C-alpha cells in the first residue's frame, strides 16, 4: 500500500476523493455533498435523525479492527437506530478527526467500509466534516431516515400483557471482543504471531461487522405486526429492557430459557469460564432489535423467522425480572457497557 | 464550583441532566431527545442538514476559550451553514467526547452555551451521543433546517455580471485569535497575569462568540432579494470566493477598497505588523455571508444595512482577482485555514 500524507491533498481534496464514488440512491436526496447543507425531501413523511460517535481507544482498537470493518460498523450502528424506530434510513453525514499517523490510503480503506454499508442498505452520503486530530481517529455519523407517522415505534408504548421479543441471538459480539482481546494479549511482543480464530468466525463477524436488522423490520411488515415499543440492543438486553420499562411505565418477566444464544457463544463462554447468561444479558453491541407486541399478535410472532418471544410485559409494580431455568427471579440491572467507567 | 466526576452520573444520567432544561420550540419537532431517533416533520418543505466537528487543540484552546462560549460557537457555526442556504435552522444533535479532566460542572458550563444559542435562534436539541475520550474534548454537532424549494440558494448559481456582496466585516475573528494567542504567550509562567484586552472587546467577541447572520437573511427577505449563490465565510473570503467561482463556473473581481473592515481590526493589524488585507481575505471564522445577486438588484442591495457590494462576477476565463487600491490585479488564492497543515 502506498503512503500519501493527508496534507498533500488538503481537506477539500481529501473529501472530493473520498466521496466521488458515492452515487445518489434516493429520490429524497435533492442535493448531497458539496454545499453548506445537504437538501432532503420526504414529502409529508416524517424525518428521523440519529447520531453516533466512535472514538479510538474507547469504542475500537485498531490493533484488531480493520479500518474497512470500522467504517462499515460506524454506519451500521446508525442505521440500526433508524430501523429501531420502524423507519427506513436514507442519508448519512460522516465527520472524521484524523491524527498524523493516518495516511490517505488508511482513510480510503475506512471509506471503503462506509461505501459498502451505504450500498448494501441504499443510503446516501450527503455531507460531513473532516479535520486533523491531536491523537487517534474519531468518527461521528448522523443518519436521517423516513417513516410514515403511523408506522413510527417509540420506546414508551409497551403495555401490560404485551409480549417481549428479540431478534437474532445475543452475547456473540461481546464474546468476539473477548476473543480478539485474548489473541491481542497472546500476540504481544511476538513478531509472526498467528491468532487462532478457527471455528469462531461468527463471533468475530458479530463484533467487527454487525448488520442492522432491516430484515426484521421487513418481516414485521410482511406479517402485519406493529410493535408497541422497540429499540436496538447496543448496551445489552438488560439495559434496553429497563429503558422500555421506565419509558413505558411497566415491568417485565424475561425467561432465561428463551434467550437466544448461538452455539459458538456458549462454547467461548465455557472456554473463558464466563457466565453465559451475563454475557447475553449485558454484553452489548449485538444490534439486535428488542420489541413488544400486543398479546393478540401471539400467533403471528410465533411465525417469525428473524425473532422470538422471550417474555412478557407486566404492571410496573411487579418490577423487571429474569426468570431463571430453576424458576428463581433475578432482578434485571443495567450492567451494560458504560464508556465513562471503562475509560 | 463543585467538582463531580462524570462517572458518578453515568452516560444516561449526564444526558438527562444536560438536556432537561431544553424545551421544544418548533412544531416540527415531533419527538426530541430520548429514543433511538428524533422525529421531525417539515410538511412539504425541504430538509437541510449540516454538520461540524470541533476538536480541542485543533479548533479551540481551552486556555483562553470559556466553555460556555465554546458551546455557543459550536452551535453558531452550524446554524450559519443553514442560513447560508437561505434556510431556517430548527433542530440540532450534539455529540461529545469528554476526557477525564472534565467534570460534570465543566460539561454543564459547555451546555449553558449550547442552551443560550438554541434559545436565541429558536432551535431544538433533539439528540446526540456522549462518550468518554482518551484525550481532550470534542464536539460534533449536526443541524437540521427547513426551506421552501424555491428559496434554497446553492453555491453554483452565480452568473456573469452578478454583483458580489458580503455581510458585516472581515478579519476581526482572526485578529481576535492573534490577540488571545499573544496574551497566552505573555502569561506563560506568570501566576497573576492580567491579559490586556481593553478596547479590543469586539475582536474577542468575534473570535469567541460569533453570531450566525439570521438578520442578513431577514433583510434579504424583507427587500425581496433572492441571491443567485451564497455561502458562509468560515475559511476566509478568498477560499469561499473560489468555491463559488468553481461551482458556478465563473470568475470575479473584488475591490480591496470595498472590503469591510472594522476599526479595531485595522488597529490590531497595525500593532502586530500584519497585512490587513491578507487578514480580511484569508483570516476565516468570520461567519459572515458571501452572496451574489443579479445586476438588476443593484438598487435594492445598496439599501441593505447588513451587507455591502464588494465586486462583480465575470466570465470564467477572466479568473478571480482582487483589484487593489492602486488598480493592480492580484490573483485570489485560497490561503484559508487548513486543519491538516496546522495540526
Structural topology:
Two copies of one chain form a homodimer.
Chain A: H1 6-19, E1 29-31, E2 38-40, E3 46-55, H2 67-83, E4 88-98, H3 104-121, E5 124-132, E6 138-147, E7 163-167, H4 172-187, H5 201-208, H6 214-222, E8 229-232, H7 237-248, E9 251-255, H8 263-272, H9 276-282, E10 289-293, H10 298-302, E11 307-314, E12 320-323, E13 329-331, H11 339-342
Parallel strand pairs in A: 4-5, 9-12
Antiparallel strand pairs in A: 1-2, 3-6, 4-6, 7-10, 7-11, 8-10, 9-11, 12-13
Helix pairs in contact in A: 1-3, 2-3, 4-5, 4-8
Explained architecture:
2 copies of one chain form a homodimer. With 343 residues, the first copy, chain A, is an alpha+beta fold. The first copy, chain A, folds into 2 domains: 6-147, PurM-like, N-terminal domain (60s Ribosomal Protein L30, Chain: A, 2-Layer Sandwich), CATH 3.30.1330.10; 163-337, PurM-like C-terminal domain (Phosphoribosyl-aminoimidazole Synthetase, Chain A, domain 2, Alpha-Beta Complex), CATH 3.90.650.10. Chain A has 11 helices and 13 strands. Chain A has helices at residues 6-19, 67-83, 104-121, 172-187, 201-208, 214-222, 237-248, 263-272, 276-282, 298-302, 339-342; strands spanning 29-31, 38-40, 46-55, 88-98, 124-132, 138-147, 163-167, 229-232, 251-255, 289-293, 307-314, 320-323, 329-331. In chain A, α1 runs parallel beside α3 (104-121) and α2 (67-83) runs parallel beside α3 (104-121).
Defining key terms:
about 350 residues, 60s Ribosomal Protein L30, Chain: A, Phosphoribosyl-aminoimidazole Synthetase, Chain A, domain 2, 2 domains, seven-stranded mixed beta sheet, 13 strands
Amino acid at each position: 500500500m502506498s503512503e500519501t500524507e493527508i496534507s498533500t491533498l488538503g481537506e477539500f481534496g481529501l473529501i472530493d476523493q473520498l466521496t466521488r464514488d458515492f452515487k445518489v440512491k434516493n429520490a429524497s436526496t435533492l442535493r448531497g455533498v458539496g454545499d453548506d447543507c445537504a437538501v432532503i425531501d420526504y414529502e409529508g413523511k416524517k424525518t428521523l435523525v440519529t447520531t453516533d460517535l466512535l472514538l479510538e481507544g474507547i469504542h475500537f482498537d485498531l490493533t484488531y479492527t480493520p479500518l474497512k470493518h470500522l467504517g462499515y460498523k460506524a454506519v451500521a450502528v446508525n442505521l440500526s437506530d433508524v430501523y429501531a424506530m420502524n423507519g427506513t434510513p436514507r442519508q448519512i453525514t460522516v465527520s472524521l478527526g484524523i491524527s498524523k499517523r493516518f495516511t490517505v490510503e488508511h482513510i480510503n480503506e475506512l471509506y471503503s467500509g462506509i461505501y459498502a454499508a451505504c450500498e448494501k442498505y441504499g443510503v446516501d452520503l450527503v455531507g460531513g466534516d473532516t479535520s486533523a486530530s491531536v491523537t487517534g481517529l474519531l468518527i461521528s455519523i448522523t443518519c436521517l431516515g423516513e417513516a410514515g407517522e403511523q408506522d413510527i415505534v417509540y420506546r414508551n408504548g409497551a403495555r401490560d400483557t404485551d409480549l417481549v421479543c428479540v431478534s437474532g441471538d445475543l452475547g456473540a459480539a461481546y464474546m468476539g471482543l473477548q476473543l480478539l482481546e485474548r489473541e491481542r494479549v497472546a500476540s504481544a511482543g511476538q513478531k509472526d504471531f498467528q491468532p487462532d480464530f478457527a471455528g469462531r468466525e461468527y463471533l468475530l463477524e458479530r463484533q467487527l461487522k454487525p448488520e442492522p436488522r432491516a430484515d426484521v423490520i421487513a418481516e414485521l411488515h410482511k406479517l402485519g405486526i406493529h410493535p408497541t415499543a422497540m429499540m436496538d440492543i447496543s448496551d445489552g438486553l438488560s439495559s434496553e429492557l429497563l429503558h422500555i420499562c421506565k419509558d413505558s411505565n411497566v415491568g417485565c418477566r424475561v425467561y432465561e430459557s428463551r434467550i437466544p444464544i448461538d452455539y459458538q457463544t456458549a462454547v467461548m463462554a465455557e472456554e473463558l469460564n464466563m457466565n453465559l447468561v451475563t454475557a447475553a444479558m449485558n454484553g452489548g453491541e449485538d444490534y439486535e432489535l428488542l420489541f413488544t407486541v400486543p398479546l393478540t399478535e401471539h400467533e403471528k410472532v410465533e411465525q417469525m423467522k428473524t425473532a422470538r418471544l422471550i417474555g412478557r410485559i407486566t404492571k410496573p409494580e411487579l418490577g423487571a425480572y429474569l426468570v431463571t431455568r430453576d424458576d428463581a427471579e433475578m432482578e434485571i440491572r443495567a450492567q451494560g457497557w458504560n464508556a465513562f467507567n471503562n475509560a
